[in-house]
Predict the structure.
Amino acid sequence: MIDTDRIDDAVLALMYLGLHDGVRAWKGFDWEALDRLHRNGMISNPISKTKSVMFTEAGLRRSERLFNDMFGRGEPDR
């Protein structure tokens, strides 16, 4: 069984890589995941002719946190 919540967290974190114009991200991810993120209030409606979506305020904060949690490096060992 697939945990779609974890998939959505991974997609939201990776969308942070494509952040541009302060609140926009490229929407080159699975459409079902993007639709769930929209329904959960993280991004604008992905069904449009534009190649990007807008993060909501909550979505941008969560995206950045997830990105840092999943892909950030802690302080280097000394």
